[in-house]
Sequence to fold (149 residues):
Amino acid sequence: MTDTDPFPYRQEPPGHGYRSSGPGYQSSGPGYQPAPPPYQAPSPDYEPAGRARRPRDGSGVRRTALIIHSIADVAAAFLVLWIVLYMFDANQANVFVQFVKGVADWLAGWSQDIFTMDTEQLRVLLNYGLPALIYLGAGHGIAARMRHL
Fold:
């Protein structure tokens, strides 16, 4: 058998260089009509090609509200963590304590020295506690308002 002879188990008609029998074979000879695809009704939210439609379920607004809510929680958490570390007299030379203090100072920079108490712990509690409450109230309020739009 040479490389141009057909395989012995397959009989090909003369003049055809393609498969003419076997599973999945469909004749493409004269009069052949392929079966049309089954009809499927368009879905209720069908849009013609070329027009992208955004979902109107408010998921973008809810996601934005969640982000605002989370940012407010993280800001308040840093402020409260600094208050706790200060109240328990944490080592101020520690890198973590310095980081928390730096973030808390930046977040509460606008409210520093609103309260000038003689007791240092009370001053830290009020000067860092007030911004924590404001961040929580404003962040949760804005997020709640956005969710109701």
